[in-house]
UniProtKB/TrEMBL annotation:
One of its GO terms (molecular function) is glutamate 5-kinase activity. Coiled coil: none annotated. CDD domains: AAK_G5K_ProB (cd04242), PUA_G5K (cd21157). ATP binds at K16, S175, D176, T217, G218, G219, M220, V221, T222, K223. Keywords: Amino-acid biosynthesis, ATP-binding, Cytoplasm, Kinase, Nucleotide-binding, Proline biosynthesis, Transferase. This is Glutamate 5-kinase. It comes from Nocardioides jiangxiensis. InterPro entries: AceGlu_kinase-like_sf, Asp/Glu/Uridylate_kinase, G5K_ProB, Glu/AcGlu_kinase, Glu_5kinase, Glu_5kinase/COase_Synthase, Glutamate_5-kinase_CS, PUA. It catalyses: L-glutamate + ATP = L-glutamyl 5-phosphate + ADP. Substrate binds at S56, D143, N155. Belongs to the glutamate 5-kinase family. Catalyzes the transfer of a phosphate group to glutamate to form L-glutamate 5-phosphate. Pathway: Amino-acid biosynthesis; L-proline biosynthesis; L-glutamate 5-semialdehyde from L-glutamate: step 1/2.
Length: 371
């Protein structure tokens, strides 16, 4: 079998493991599966490669202690299960990593942590420091505080964003299925794709949701989306089963390899483009639309003709050209109620009329992504 240099040459790898790969048939965390995974990760560390683990399983781990038979539907119950389960999950990782002389560091992230500039910087710095100290970060979504609106809901995309945040050289997605198939793997005659070089290879592939175990979320849809985000940012992705973890991480050609398709771009922006629901629309005049699209300029109030929606400062909004096309998405610096007072005014006028702070740009170029 050929060896994948994308794997063997990677100095930093993000590994994501899904709930379905950590649970027993009866539900709850399977300590054996955690142990086997940690043994593999310790092997990767032993050859000098840094590892960040993104682990699902908090909700699954909380089911048994709460006497629940299956993943609850309601958000509050899921949050409660995650609250109970996350501690147990990280405890398992801490114990297993300690057998190899390694230290686990829990990192719980919300959508805000990868979209808002200040939060993003914090998360980035924390992860960088943990890696510097030789700690193995164990990341999960902060399920207990995430609401429907500000929730990834799945860890696949979170893992892709973490991979970019830590400038990983490779993302490995471990699931209960050994690769991406051209149809749902339960259907006879479906075949595994060994390599995906771009969108063309995905044409005609039936990408289904949740697997048979019923503990995961998102199924293949979110994994392919995660692969798009990572590869579009220059990071190759290997998708395979947790049982293949050892082979995948030593570079064997198992599962599906998604080749890098793009150059690295800032994480938050990819998230904005791919997964954020805009909370409103800013209407731009022709000059502003041109400046944003062709020159990568920040959006100034002078180029605004109106707005729609009930957004607050910091929310994602679409920037719409005079023809009604959404040309960009960005994080707005004003509440919707403030915008009418700003329309068409230069920064100097705003400063004069409203004082300090109102001369700021409406959407900063660093918080903008073209659609
Ligand atoms: N085209 C496909 N190729 C492979 N698996 C698929 C496909 N379509 C749907 N699936 C399902 O996606 C499941 C994996 O997703 P999920 O259950 O969310 O796992 P995880 O907990 O690892 O995130 C597989 O078990 C499989 O049944
Ligand atoms: N944050 C959640 C993960 C959600 C989930 O089930 O994700 P996944 O199994 O990766 O599809 C948890 O820890 O239970």
């Amino acid at each position: 079998m050929s060896t994948r240099t994308e794997v063997t040459s990677a100095a930093r790898i993000v590994v994501k493991v899904g709930s379905s790969s950590l649970t027993t048939a009866a539900g709850g965390i399977d300590p054996e599966r955690v142990r086997r995974l940690v043994d593999v990760l310790a092997g990767v560390r032993a050859r000098g490669t840094e590892v960040v683990l993104v682990s699902s399983g908090a909700i699954a781990a909380g089911l048994a202690p709460l006497g629940l038979k299956k993943r609850p539907r309601g958000l509050a119950a899921q949050q409660a299960a995650a609250s109970v389960g996350q501690g147990l999950l990280v405890h398992r990782y801490t114990e297993e990593l300690a057998r190899h002389g390694l230290i686990a560091g829990q990192v719980l992230l919300t959508v805000d942590d990868v979209t808002r500039r200040a939060h993003y910087r914090n998360a980035h710095q924390t992860l960088a420091e943990l890696l510097q100290l030789g700690v193995l970060p164990v990341v999960n979504e902060n399920d207990t505080v995430a609401t429907h609106e500000i929730r990834f809901g799945d860890n696949d995309r979170l893992a892709a964003l973490v991979a970019q945040m830590v400038h990983a050289d490779l993302l490995v997605l471990l699931s209960d299925v050994d690769g991406l198939y051209d149809g749902h793997p339960s259907q006879p005659g479906t075949r595994m794709l060994h390599e995906v070089r771009g969108e063309a290879d995905l044409a005609g592939v039936q990408i289904g949701s949740v697997g048979a175990a019923g503990v995961g979320t998102g199924g293949m849809v979110t994994k392919v989306e995660a692969a798009r985000i990572a590869t579009g940012a220059g990071i190759p992705v290997v998708l395979t089963s947790a049982d293949n973890a050892s082979a995948a991480l030593t570079g064997d050609a198992v599962g599906t390899l998604f080749h890098a398709t793009g150059k690295r771009r800032p994480t938050r922006l990819l998230w904005l483009a791919h997964a954020t629901e805009p909370k409103g629309r800013l209407l731009l005049d022709a000059g502003a639309a041109r400046a944003v699209v062709s020159r990568g300029a920040s959006l100034l109030a002078a180029g605004l003709t109106g707005c729609e929606g009930a957004f607050e400062a910091g929310d994602p909004v679409d920037l719409v050209d005079p023809a009604g096309a959404s040309v960009a998405r960005g994080l707005v610096n004003f509440d919707a109620s403030e915008v009418p007072g700003l329309l068409g005014k230069s920064s100097a006028v705003l400063l004069q009329e409203f004082g300090e702070g109102y001369d700021r740009v409406v959407v900063h170029r660093d918080d903008l992504v073209l659609l």
